[in-house]
């Protein structure tokens, strides 16, 4: 059973136990309220039983609020823990990105030299390295010339006169690739935009 399934199974059993405890306490409180109601109908000090019933209702309300607050706390911390696991590799991945960039530049230069055996060897290492990073959650952001510029996901390093009217306000060139780790952007793509 993998870690996610174990976490889900453990969480489900905790929820069942919590619900069982909650149900037992609620049943007990309801029984006490009914017992107080029964005494009240017998005529034994109605004002005192009313006070006890009111106090019991207040305590039951406090208990239910506290239980709901605890459930919210558990849900929130569980979500934070899952997020932490997803982004735990962020520092390592960020440190590896310059190495990946160097591999890309090396491949371009080796491709110009036309040495097929050297190119094949470096491509093999490059692909293995990229797959290892991808298996840990790293994902390249797809950005290409002609895409609309979005300041939320792109980092514009400069603007140049657009080579054509179609590229005005759009991306003219991608200087450095961007990467995501899960859903979080760990490096924004550096782009040149057209005026």
Automatic annotation (TrEMBL):
InterPro entries xrefs: GrpE, GrpE_CC, GrpE_head
Top-level taxon in the UniProt lineage: Bacteria
Biased composition (Basic and acidic residues): 1-12
Alphabetical UniProt keywords: Chaperone, Cytoplasm, Stress response
Subcellular compartments: Cytoplasm
Region called Disordered, residue ranges: 1-54
Gene3D superfamilies per UniProt: 3.90.20.20, Head domain of nucleotide exchange factor GrpE
Acidic residues bias locations: 28-38
Listed transmembrane segments: none
Comp. bias regions, Polar residues: 39-48
Coarse class of the protein's main subcellular location: cytoplasm
Family that this chain belongs to: Belongs to the GrpE family.
Quaternary structure note: Homodimer.
The protein's role, per its UniProt record: Participates actively in the response to hyperosmotic and heat shock by preventing the aggregation of stress-denatured proteins, in association with DnaK and GrpE. It is the nucleotide exchange factor for DnaK and may function as a thermosensor. Unfolded proteins bind initially to DnaJ; upon interaction with the DnaJ-bound protein, DnaK hydrolyzes its bound ATP, resulting in the formation of a stable complex. GrpE releases ADP from DnaK; ATP binding to DnaK triggers the release of the substrate protein, thus completing the reaction cycle.
Protein name: Protein GrpE
Native source species: Gillisia lutea
């Amino acid at each position: 059973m993998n870690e996610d399934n174990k976490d889900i199974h453990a969480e489900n059993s905790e929820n069942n136990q919590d619900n069982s405890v909650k149900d037992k306490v609620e049943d007990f409180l309801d029984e006490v309220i009914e017992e107080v109601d029964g005494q009240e109908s017998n005529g034994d000090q109605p004002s005192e039983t009313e006070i006890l019933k009111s106090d019991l209702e207040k305590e039951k309300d406090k208990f239910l609020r506290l239980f709901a607050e605890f459930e919210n706390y558990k849900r929130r911390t569980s979500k934070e823990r899952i997020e932490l696991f997803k982004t735990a590799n962020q520092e390592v991945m960020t440190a590896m990105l310059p190495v990946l960039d160097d591999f890309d530049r090396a491949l371009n230069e080796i491709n110009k030299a036309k040495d097929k055996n050297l190119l094949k060897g470096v491509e093999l290492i490059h692909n293995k390295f990229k797959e290892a990073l991808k298996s840990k959650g790293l994902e390249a952001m797809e950005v290409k010339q002609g895409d609309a510029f979005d300041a939320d996901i792109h980092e514009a390093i400069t603007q140049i006169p657009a080579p054509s009217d179609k590229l005005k306000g759009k991306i003219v060139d991608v200087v450095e690739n961007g990467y995501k780790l899960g859903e979080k952007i760990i490096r924004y793509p550096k782009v040149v935009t057209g005026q």
